[in-house]
Amino acid sequence: MGDSKLILCCFIACILFLGVNGENPYRYITWKVTYGDIYPLGVKQQGILINGQFPGPHIDAVTNDNLIISVYNYLNEPFLISWNGVQQRRNSWQDGVSGTNCPIRPGKNFTYVLQVKDQIGSFYYFPSLLFHKAAGGYGAIRIWSRPKIPVPFPSPAGDFTVLAGDWYKRNHYVLRRLLDSGHNLPFPDRLLINGRGWNGYTFTVDPGRTYRFRVSNVGLTTSINFRIQGHKLKLIEVEGSHTLQNTYTSFDIHLGQSCSFLVTADQIPQDYYVVASTRFTRRVLTTTAVLHYSNSKRGVSGPVPGAPTIQIAPSVMQARSIRWNLTASGPRPNPQGSYHYGLITPSRTIMLSNSAPYINGKQRYAVNGVSYVPADTPLKIADYFKIPGVFNLGSIPTWPPSGNNAYFQTSVMAANFREYVEIVFQNWEDTVQSWHIDGYSFFVVGMNGGQWTPASRSSYNLRDTVARCTTQVYPRSWTAIYMALDNVGMWNIRSENWARQYLGQQFYLRVYSPANSWRDELPIPKNALLCDRARGRHTRPF
Questions:
Q1: Which residue in 73, 127, 154, 272 is a FRET match for 92, CA 20 to 30 A apart?
Q2: Mean pLDDT for the stretch of residues 34-60
């Protein structure tokens, strides 16, 4: 009788698994993560390479594909990869951050099993531990629409990836020691485009044809402005949302953000600058790549085209101009606008306020007065095995406390599956903040200067704002989002300024369902790494 029950359980499990993944293709990827010498600024540095490449290889997938990614860690430090913008539906087990996964120890490997469920668009992956992101280890993720799903623009002649961001000449472990000692990072040395410095990378185009440029800000500390000399940028997608196709001469991209443009090679055949420069910095860093017409006989010439530098108002106006294309299909054939986010009343409001306190004489960063410290055991694993003493729910308030006191805590906020929440990011500092939420796409309903109040809702866009996973908050301003908590799991909410994230400006949102059903959340992976207080425990038999 016991054997027949086990067989029946295995049969049901297989049916459930195949129902989720069986009809969708599997793509198998193997990565070897190593140190290697890189020269992005002409000076030898120790970089993190994936299969010998910096930046790492692209991941190309189609909506609902299953990605089986085996990662072999040949570094001398623990390592994890996270997937910026991939929602990991029902599966925070694969998120690749310290709150969900034990690290891959040196000389060991781990196989991620992801599904890009109901997603399209432009994203990227990156190393999430020990400030490794400052050494590379990042690369592009491109999720294509299924062949029968219409997209709201003709197929481009080519698809280019632009991974741009600030860079330091100092090795990552030197920067990490600086932060650990209680200091902030210095101003970055330069900007890179696809791992190269000034005019170090070339995009080749044919005259008269149109190309897609997918641009991600993979930097550590600064917003950037992107532009192409003499060419217009037609915005078509932001982090998986098709947008109204507005045209820009330059475009601000904040830390952690990704977007796509159509660019037509409609100018005199020659070479043109592709430019990235820092935004909201007194000292402006600029770097260039080259847009090369295939029949060009003339190199780049003339001054590098300018763009806004410290001005905030043009950036706010531009951000408000990004609108959802209501009639376009998303990952599914139904129009994006068929989801009426503005007609749903949020069940509660959460306000998150960033700060830069000194604690025990050292620089830290905090959310609602709490500076996050990682636990010795991943929160998700501790939650599954009910290991006491790792974290406490409610260890971060849902509203900024009065006063300026800040303290250390492994901060976890409680939330319920299928809640619909309003989150207000309140920024009283003089720098632009960039916030990311793992596991979700949210609606950026409003942003403005000063203090948010309930009366601020009168300015919300409740019809066609864009859905995305990373949003900026301007200095001494607020940004409000609506978010449906439809993804059970333990999800990281963090600053995309990597020094601030490293020094405590992050926490975890535990989205809980009491059903304990595979319908709501996939079970712990059979191959899950177990460490520290979870060591010696067992995952599951199948």
A1: 73
A2: 97
Q: Return the H-helix or E-strand segment holding 314.
A: helix 313-320
Residues near 318 by beta carbon (within 8 Å), at least 6 away in sequence: 248, 251, 252
The per-residue pLDDT for 12 is: 38
pLDDT at 22: 52
DSSP assignment of 376-398: SS-HHHHHHHT-TTS-EET-S-S
- pLDDT on residue 13: 43
The percentage of the chain sitting over the pLDDT mark of 90, rounded to a whole number, equals: 94
- Dist. CA 377–CA 103, nearest whole Å: 10
What mean pLDDT value characterizes the chain? 95
User: What is the token pair recorded at 302?
Assistant: 């003339």
What is the rounded distance in angstroms from the CA atom of residue 257 to the CA atom of residue 321? 16
Q: How far apart are CA 112 and CA 109, in angstroms?
A: 10
- The CA distance from 59 to 216, in Å, is 14
Please state, for a pLDDT cut of 70, what percent of the chain lies above it: 96
Mean pLDDT along residues 318-340: 95
The stretch 140-161 carries a mean pLDDT of 97
Tell how strand 286-293 and strand 202-205 pair up: parallel
* Spacing of C-alpha 492 from chain mean position: 11
- Residue 13, in any domain of the structure: no
| Dist CA 389 CA 380 (whole Å) | 13
Together in a domain, 404 and 303: no
CA–CA separation, 523 and 541 (whole Å): 11
* Residue 372 · residue 505 · CB < 8 Å: yes
CB 395 within 8 A of CB 370: yes
pLDDT digits (tens, 9 = 90+) for 265-296: 999 999 999 999 999 999 999 999 999 999 99
Segment (H or E) for 473: strand 470-473
349 in Cβ contact with 380 (< 8 Å): no
**For residue range 465-506, what is the model confidence (pLDDT) as tens digits?**
999 999 999 999 999 999 999 999 999 999 999 999 999 999
- Is there a single domain that holds both residue 517 and residue 406? yes
CA Rg value for the chain: 23
484 and 511 part of one domain: yes
Q: Where are the beta strands (DSSP E) in 239-347?
A: 241-242, 247-248, 251-253, 258-264, 271-279, 286-293
Q: How many CA atoms lie within 13 A of 377 on its CB side?
A: 21
Q: Is 358 found in the same domain as 217? A: no
CA 56 – CA 126 distance, rounded (Å) = 9
CATH of residue 353's domain is 2.60.40.420
User: 224 with 162: CB under 8 angstroms?
Assistant: no
Three-class SS state of 407: strand
Say what the pLDDT of residue 542 is: 67
Range of the domain at 500: 348-534
